[in-house]
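User: Teach me something about this protein's shape.
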Amino acid sequence: MATSNPLTSPVSVLILAGGPSSRMGADKAWLEIDGQPMIARVLRRALPVAAETIISTNEPGRFRAVAEAFPLPALVVTDRMGAGPLAGLHAGLSVASHELVLALGTDMPFVDPEVLSYLIGLAGGYDAVVPQVVNRNSGAAELEPLHAVYRTSCLGAIERHLRAGHRRMVAFLPDVRTCIVPWEQIALLDPGFRSFLNINTPEDLTAARLLAKDLPE
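Assistant: First, the predicted structure itself:
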């Protein structure tokens, strides 16, 4: 496993808080796990690596109280391009106070500060650090761009792709200096890829609530 550099630069933590999920039938940010909304849980678990917090959402009024409850500078931003998570990333990078931005989906309730620190530590010389994970259903290795580190230098490439109608989160990665972190390296820190578990369905939510009861904080 490559050794990551110590955290020497402040990091903005960006939570991508989309609207209602078609598979869940509700806004996942406000679903509770272990007695707290998922958005608050993700923010709290990312605090050890954060110098500021940003929430990207199309409903800013609902999230301001959550952002302001944490002991860090906090921003809530609305994406102006209306094109899903990639537009949310663009919005967050546009207002970030720091060059390094850790982007996380709001539906990942088990993010791990050790894994986050490792990814941030790999950012030297790169515009993006994106891990590979093993899909728990298919067993295939795939990129997880909603649990990744980006520099504000990605803004130009993201904007070009958005204006061209490209909405996939990974669309711009070939245009910037990208470090793809092999799943084998991630597995050394997180063998079950638990920190990348995302909640998409009511069944996922039930399983996550049971898992949260068994895990020490």
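Now, about its shape. The chain has a mean pLDDT of 89. Strands lie at 11-16, 32-33, 36-37, 52-56, 74-77, 100-105, 128-134, 141-143, 147-151, 178-181. If you'd like, I can walk through any region in more detail.
User: That's plenty for now, thanks!
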